[in-house]
């Protein structure tokens, strides 16, 4: 059987609408970038329950000999690039690994470091998956920024922007109403601004009366808005705490896909909590069809 005839088994998962194709890393995919670009496409990609495509492909390698089990996560985005970290993607990876091992906690090896994840039982609903996200950093060399000082509410493209790294770079902007922002027009100039030499996700946040925040994020690699962004939710909570905008250590952040909880302690890693859903399984060609 030729490579062009081979198929790859996959699972489709999402975390508050942030959706991923999950492929066991033991499956041979010769060109992961091309695979992700084709099957994540929102017009011609995999046919989902509600919409086509995905926000990325998670290639996961499970190592059960460790206690707790470990899973090596590689996220390939729709543009073919890899992302160092993804909060919702890591939670999906944790759910995938816990379902296969029966464990209630796992270690996730990402390009941003190793992260501990665990299942959190909920009395009146589906369990949550919590993952440690590392300590957010405003340091210019970590974000990274093309400047010597942190960027805290600096003026960029008409907005007060704060640069932070929560596993990947984020440009965080507080506004009165996230729905009033023309994200497709206003986010790209910030995402590609010279101050961010590696680019940045652009996350807009609006405070709510209950102390939480509404969220919209334009993700690099996806090059558009996603229904949820875990690193963006952590970025909002961390920047809000830094600016004295938080009254509690745990903040509810609400992207379009649902609610996430973020814990940002004064000293220690941030923790992201949220649901994970397994939508369906399927098979797709290992080699995408050639373009016409």
From TrEMBL:
Q: What is its EC number?
A: 5.1.1.7
Q: Where is this site: Could be important to modulate the pK values of the two catalytic cysteine residues?
A: 170, 219
Question: Which gene is this protein's source?
Answer: dapF
Enumerate the Gene Ontology biological process terms: lysine biosynthetic process via diaminopimelate
Q: Tell me which species this is from.
A: Haloarchaeobius iranensis
Q: Which reaction does it catalyse?
A: (2S,6S)-2,6-diaminopimelate = meso-2,6-diaminopimelate
What is the name of the protein in this document?
A: Diaminopimelate epimerase
Give the active-site positions: 86 (proton donor), 229 (proton acceptor)
Q: What is its main location?
A: cytoplasm
Could you tell me one molecular function GO term of this UniProt entry?
A: diaminopimelate epimerase activity
Q: Where does substrate bind?
A: 18, 77, 87-88, 201, 219-220, 230-231
Record key words, sorted? Amino-acid biosynthesis, Cytoplasm, Isomerase, Lysine biosynthesis
Lineage start: Archaea, Methanobacteriati, Methanobacteriota, Stenosarchaea group, Halobacteria
